[in-house]
Amino acid sequence: MAGILAWFWNERFWLPHNVTWADLKNTEEATFPQAEDLYLAFPLAFCIFMVRLIFERFVAKPCAIALNIQANGPQIAQPNAILEKVFTAITKHPDEKRLEGLSKQLDWDVRSIQRWFRQRRNQEKPSTLTRFCESMWRFSFYLYVFTYGVRFLKKTPWLWNTRHCWYNYPYQPLTTDLHYYYILELSFYWSLMFSQFTDIKRKDFGIMFLHHFVSVLLITFSYVNNMARVGTLVLCLHDSADALLEAAKMANYAKFQKMCDLLFVMFAMVFITTRLGIFPLWVLNTTLFESWEIVGPYPSWWVFNLLLLLIQGLNCFWSYLIVKIACKAVSKGKVSKDDRSDIESSSDEEDLEPPGKNPHTTTTTNGTGGTNGYLLTGPCSMDD
């Protein structure tokens, strides 16, 4: 184990030439980031998750009820042991051949079996109230952490001149505000990593999990080798659009369509400007070029920049989805159903379908699909 730890914490990988871990030990004159500080993130992540449960129950839920957002879910499928067994053990989307076999076995018409499977699938979807509470929690946290980041960064020299991220590196003291900001962000991303398995499931679950994982790596990595100054720029920049997105989703769930459209446009403009404009021209410029000039490259420098480039690749992917949603909104007159949403359509609408019509093509005939649409829920910061 000692050999493994010595290999993992190899100074020639983590630190610039002629710098050792002993040089970055805390003294009476200065405090530097220490790897063991990151253990604080785990109990704090649990606390954040508990605060979220309390917030959703005692703050978000009363707000949702005041906005007439109903807690009732879709229509419940009638109990049937045979269909339930097929649904849970074989397939949730039976093909035509299986539908015909079930029709003969149960003496039901195919149309009734299709309706049962649609109702059963929708049964597993969370209610609009649950979605609203989740969005309100994220909106509140993103707004707080972004506000804190702006108030902290406006007092720092590296916000106004990014070369200060590398002057005297890595001998840059760790301030209390910077330590709090970093640990809070890391704790939130750890809470997202775990809660993602219990939160509303969406089609890009894998991509979002990758995003949260890379975010945790970036925060941890930049803290350990004291790239925290540029890390704060990355965090604050990526937090800038998230509150707008969650606000747009809340307006959507509350059926304030005009407000939803306005907030979505604001979100799209901020997201694309910050992620495709400011981030590469400002942050990547300093991590790739200014740091090369002032400090010079070393192994962990390459890893850090590769992770930032991976984040930028995800930014490009989500920007494509946002533009796609915006184009649909222009053609339909409002923001339409979320490409990430797994809701097919409301149960009431499904029951009114004409026989023989494909149920998967009737969800967005008027831009809402009976569910008032679900916005593109974009990245969480360091993110997404």
Commentary on this structure:
With 384 residues, this protein is mostly helical. It folds into two domains: 32-66 and 127-332, no CATH class; 81-124, Homeodomain-like (Arc Repressor Mutant, subunit A, Orthogonal Bundle). It has helices spanning 2-8, 11-14, 41-66, 81-89, 96-106, 110-123, 128-153, 157-160, 176-195, 205-224, 228-239, 242-253, 257-294, 299-332, 347-351. The longest helix is centred in the last third of the chain and has 38 residues, at 257-294. It catalyses: sphinganine + octadecanoyl-CoA = N-(octadecanoyl)-sphinganine + CoA + H(+). Its main location: endoplasmic reticulum. Residues 338-384 are annotated as: Disordered.
Summary keywords:
384 residues; mainly alpha; Arc Repressor Mutant, subunit A; 15 helices; 0% strand; elongated
In short:
The protein is mostly helical and 384 residues long.
Q: What is the number of beta strands?
A: 0
Order of helices and strands: HHHHHHHHHHHHHHH
Overall number of domains: 2
Number of helices, counting only DSSP H or I runs of 4 residues or more: 15
Mean pLDDT across all residues, rounded?
A: 84
Low-confidence stretches: 336-384
Distance between the termini: 35 Å
Quote the beta fraction. under 5%
- Identify the overall geometry: elongated
Helix/strand class? mainly alpha
| Gyration radius from CA atoms, angstroms | 25 Å
> Percent of residues in helical segments?
55-70%
Profile the largest sheet: none
